[in-house]
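Example record for the data management plan.
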Amino acid sequence: MSTVEVEAAPESFGDFLRKAFASRSFLIGFAITLVVAATAFVSLFWTPYDITNLVVADRMKPVSAEHWFGTDHFGRDILSMIMVGSRTSIAVAIVAVVVGVGLGVPLGCWAAARGGAVDDALMRFNDLVFAFPALLTAIMITSIFGPGAVNAIIAIGIFNIPVFARVARAGALALWPREYVLAARAAGKNAARITVEHILPNITSMLLVQATIQFALGILAEASLSYLGLGAQPPMTSWGRMLFDAQTRMVVAPHLALFPGMAIVVTVLGLNLLGDGLRDVLDPRLRRER
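Corresponding structural encoding:
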């Protein structure tokens, strides 16, 4: 599991931009992520074809000037489906990351502030959750409540909670012995106020990098769950669902799996490059090593 170390925030937003745009990884990752986000946004208002219209006469057409990515077994335009599917993948990943941050960060900061039995109990809880990967958790949830995008969000979100809890705890533990934190305690501030005013602002950068990593993993996990039939269900479209529908037709129409697969690979690659770029920019020790 990828984690990040405690990082120092840039001196100013302008300084951050200067260092960010000097990073090749950040530039490439940011450009890819921006294109994917723009595609999802545009699909809210326009797609080349309406994916709800089934044109059987156009089924499984190859790549052409009329259909840039071809058509599927129902005659739907694949490019349009990829555009619409990007909304599902991004939405599931975003909500899952928000769940992880919203529950994991307070737990990690609380454990670091309290220490002792509370800290030990949280770490054992994290170990328990890590024993059940997102895929296995999704299988258990869907066996009870049935498959669907909401259950995929719950499964991925539950897996994200201990990830952010560990990152927040590690960052907070490194900061509690610092002089400014000791001075705040001597001034009479309680643990909650110190966490909000001094700890969280100084671990925001590391949480941002981890959120980027988990966002990429969330898209990959959603695609995997949908491919197994545990994620988005018809009529909802997702990249993993498109791969699921294409698996029995790859010999006669390989483009059915090629383009949604490429969409997943490019998006995850872009987010990983963006995360690497942010880590390089926000971690002064890495900048010195380079």
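Summary line stored alongside the record: The radius of gyration is 22 Å.
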